[in-house]
Structure formats: structure tokens, C-alpha cells
Design brief:
binds coenzyme A, 2-enoyl-CoA Hydratase, Chain A, domain 1, alpha/beta
Length: 259
């Protein structure tokens, strides 16, 4: 792969977007590589969860690659947004394993949208976040108008999108865009690793079911409560449920197999 680096430790897959000279801007090749690596990780039993971050200290991702789409017309623009959403951003949101964004610097435009698609967001205190697309004559196209509204509410989402201004990590934390702050980049991945590690002690099928049930809350075509009932019931037929309850009664740690 040209623009993606991966590292797997303790069932945690770190995906690093690696175009630091372009502040990790998402061009088509990077998005396709991200799609490929995520598709593989979704079914790979060695991967329990994912941390997405950017190479270097300056940027997580400074947006979609402006140079690449500068000459696009209506049709290409529509395809850009549609393919990006379906192949990467929706894939992350519906990923069957926890996905954390480790925001190590600028998260702008498509970069903030990438973080918003992740299940949790943890940022270094120097990170800056924003959706500056209107300054280019565009709007966010990778789900940003929707996911920002869900997290921060309509008023704050409109303020950020219409002004296009950047906010600090502290402000983003107050707006509930972030789950946690790290004092610096040195602490960022260890903090993400500890949070993901807590999750990975739990039953993998239950994690996947919990993600589906919570996502159903934000899916206008789904009934969240009914989804929860179905997912809850299905878990009773898993080996992990039997192992989890047996381990509790036997006062030992469970050994989940993801079955
Ligand atoms: N697409 C393509 N290239 C980008 C990019 C993007 N979204 N963001 C940064 N780059 C490139 C710059 O063009 C520059 O490349 P060059 O050295 O070949 O000229 C390189 O990354 C470094 O960026 P630069 O602007 O010189 O850094 P800076 O510290 O002065 O400014 C930012 C940093 C993030 C404020 C600035 O790069 C920026 O505003 N980027 C665009 C953000 C944006 O609008 N994103 C939404 C896109 S839809």
C-alpha cells in the first residue's frame, strides 16, 4: 500500500494515513487503500478493534485532496461523495469491531468526517477541528452534515459548517465531538490503546451487536428498540454468552472465542 501503514498488536490494528507532506489529505488511492484494509480487518479474527490516526505530528487528515477534485463537475462530485460514503465512511460507522479515531493534529473537512464516522474520537490537545468546505464553495460530502448534527446538535453543527471555522480540541470536547483529550501526541496512542483494550476484554459478538443497536438509533429506516430486542435475543445462542455467564458464576475471567 502506498498511503496507509498498518500495525497489529494485541488484537489492535493501528491504521496510519501516511501522506504527511500533504497533511494526510484523502485522495482516491488513500480511500481505496483504507477500504481494502478495513474490509480485510472486518473478518480477520486477529483484529479485535481498530485505531485510525495520521502520520506525523501536524495532521490527522486535512481533508479530501483539494488538488484532485479541483477540476470535477457535478457528476464526478456526486460520485466522489457517494463512493466515499459507501466504501469508507459507512463501512467504518457500521464496522463490526470498535473503531477509534486518534486525532493527532488537524482534522478538517473529510478528516473530521473520517473521525465522526469512527465509534470514538480521542484527540491531542493541540488538534484543530473543522468543516471548512464552504470556504471552497462546497459543503461536507462524506456524511459531515449528518454526523456532526447527531453529535453536537443542529445549532452547533450549523454554526461550525456555515462559518467553516476551526475549533480547538478543548472546544470540540465541550461540544461532545470528542470522547477524551490527550495532553500530547506521545500519550495519544497509548490512551487509545488502553480504551480499546478495555473493550477487547469483552465478547466480540456482543461488541458487534452493541454497535448495530446503537447505530439503529440514528438510522431513520430502523426501529432501534426492536433492533435491540433482536440483537439481545440472538446473543443468547452464542458460545460467548455461555462462557461469560459461566465465568462470572465460577469467579474467573472469561475466555471469549467470538462464537
Ligand atoms: N488537499 C490537498 N492538499 C492539501 C490539503 C488538502 N485538503 N491540505 C493541505 N494540503 C497540502 C498543501 O497544499 C501543502 O502542499 P504543498 O507543500 O505541496 O504546497 C501541504 O499540504 C502543507 O500544507 P500547508 O497549507 O502548506 O500547511 P499550513 O501549515 O500552512 O496550513 C492548513 C495547514 C491545514 C491550515 C492548510 O493546509 C489548509 O487549510 N488545508 C486545507 C483544509 C481544507 O480546506 N480541508 C477541506 C477540504 S474539502
Amino acid at each position: 500500500m502506498r498511503y496507509i501503514l498498518t500495525e497489529l498488536n494485541d488484537r489492535q490494528l493501528v491504521i496510519r494515513i501516511n501522506r504527511p507532506d500533504k497533511l494526510n489529505a484523502l485522495n482516491r488511492t488513500t480511500l481505496e487503500e483504507l477500504h481494502g484494509v478495513l474490509r480485510q480487518a472486518a473478518t480477520d479474527p486477529r483484529t479485535g478493534g481498530v485505531i485510525i490516526t495520521g502520520a506525523g505530528d501536524k495532521a490527522f487528515v486535512a481533508g479530501a485532496d483539494i488538488e484532485e477534485f479541483a477540476s470535477y463537475g457535478q457528476q464526478e462530485g456526486t460520485i466522489l461523495a457517494q463512493q466515499g460514503q459507501e466504501r469508507v465512511f459507512d463501512l467504518i460507522e457500521n464496522f463490526p469491531k470498535p473503531v477509534l479515531a486518534a486525532i493527532n493534529g488537524y482534522a478538517l473537512g473529510g478528516g473530521l468526517e473520517l473521525a465522526l464516522a469512527c465509534h470514538l474520537r480521542i484527540a491531542s490537545s493541540h488538534a484543530k477541528l473543522g468543516l471548512p468546505e464552504v470556504s471552497l464553495g462546497l459543503i461536507p460530502g462524506y456524511g459531515g452534515t449528518q454526523r456532526l448534527s447527531m453529535l453536537a446538535g443542529r445549532g452547533k453543527a450549523l454554526e461550525l459548517i456555515l462559518t467553516g471555522k476551526m475549533i480547538t480540541a478543548q472546544e470540540a470536547l465541550e461540544l461532545k465531538l470528542l470522547n477524551h483529550l490527550s495532553p500530547d501526541n506521545g500519550e495519544l496512542l497509548p490512551l487509545c490503546g488502553r480504551i480499546l483494550g478495555e473493550m477487547l476484554k469483552n465478547a466480540p459478538l456482543a461488541l458487534a451487536a452493541a454497535i448495530r443497536a446503537v447505530n439503529a438509533c440514528f438510522d431513520p429506516d430502523a426501529n432501534g428498540f426492536k433492533t435491540e430486542i433482536r440483537e439481545f435475543g440472538n446473543l443468547f445462542d452464542t458460545d460467548d454468552f455461555k462462557e461469560g455467564t459461566r465465568a462470572f458464576l465460577e469467579k474467573r475471567k472469561p475466555d471469549f472465542k467470538g462464537k
